[in-house]
Amino acid sequence: MNEQNAQVSPAGTPSQAPSHPAAAEFDAVLSRGAFMPLDQFGLIDAVGDDAASFLHGQLTNDVQHLDAASARLAGYCSPKGRLLASMLTWRAADTIRLLVSKDLTAAVQKRLSMFVLRAKAKLTDATDAVAVVGFAGDVRAPLAQLFDALPDGVHVHVAGPAGSLIRVPDAAARPRYLWIGPKALVQEKLADLDGKLARVSPGVWDWLDIHAGEPRITQAVLEQFVPQMVNFDVLEGINFRKGCYPGQEVVARSQYRGTIKRRMALAHVAAEEPVSAGTELFHSDDPGQPCGMVVNAAGAPKGGFDVLAEIKLAALESGSVHLGAADGPELVFQPLPYALPSEV
What is the CATH number of the domain that holds 172? Predict the structure, then answer.
């Protein structure tokens, strides 16, 4: 195994509490269509003859056989199998692109670069050169003016002069797309879209991601979760047939020995104060120790916050789960948009 012990970034960085979009912004997505510039993401570009094979040996998913028409979720783990980053990966011409939480981008690029060694691969932080825009709702007609073809399925990627367009999982029964392209060009084209689609704040995308059941690893939850704890196996973010990568033994052992006793769930919490990723959760029957942690949080349309919460499965069977302390606001759990496997 590749023992990579360098730190991605210092521990203890405070998480940024989510903003609360206005009700009209949620309505724009749910009743019509909207776009939102996404400054919460960064981009790492990998180029070189060995870029695919190098990343294949670092990430939880298959990069070696990633074709130009597909995008894949992947994780980057510590040697202990704990997630250092989550990412969406795809090919753009001769470049493999990694979409990562912006607060981790520079550190992940630096860490990966440390282990290139003799491989013919170079990784650069491309965040400043590109723009990332999310689209949700009835948006196909405006997108058709930017791209000759639109993705016909989830995690299908199409490329054109304007950059890349990727269909990502639906949320709240609305289709969603990511557009990643050269910053100046994207900003120019967005000016034309302002009269055709509502422009809403990035926090709406965070809420949609939560309702798609897709976690985003940020600084606040660095090295807290084995991938299965945040449902990466269900989301096809792990390839169990590929070769070795950092933490692979831990991830495989968790899968095949039936030791997955914690999962990620969707919940609403009627908290007045902003809810932050990394906040611990407590169960009514065992108030002395945490039973889980908030992975992601976003303001909800009717107030309060919706969260993705990593939690002991046993804690969902009875009693109540509370935010921050045993007497904190109670979490009301909701169905995820996908089924979890039965745990042994």
Answer: 3.30.1360.120
